[in-house]
Amino acid sequence: MQQEAGLNRQAYVRMQVVLSGTVLQQHAQHLTLGSMVRVSGFLNRHQSRSGQAKLVLHAQQIEQLS
């Protein structure tokens, strides 16, 4: 939930995350569906073959919270 103009607003986004490197891939194998994680990295714009653009998070660090 985020507050905007004095009102509560539910904030939700679905975003593809790209993992590169063996350390991150090994760490990700231990995650289960519904796990809370903190991911840091950088955002990049990817374009599909059909020309549709989407925002992708390139993970540089993953921390499991729960």
From TrEMBL:
GO cellular component, one term: replisome
GO molecular function: single-stranded DNA binding
A Pfam family it matches: SSB_1
GO biological process, one term: DNA replication
InterPro entries in the record: NA-bd_OB-fold (IPR012340), Prisomal_replication_PriB (IPR023646)
Top-level division of the source organism's lineage: Bacteria
Gene3D superfamilies to which the protein is assigned, alphabetical: Nucleic acid-binding proteins
Protein name per Swiss-Prot or TrEMBL: Primosomal replication protein N
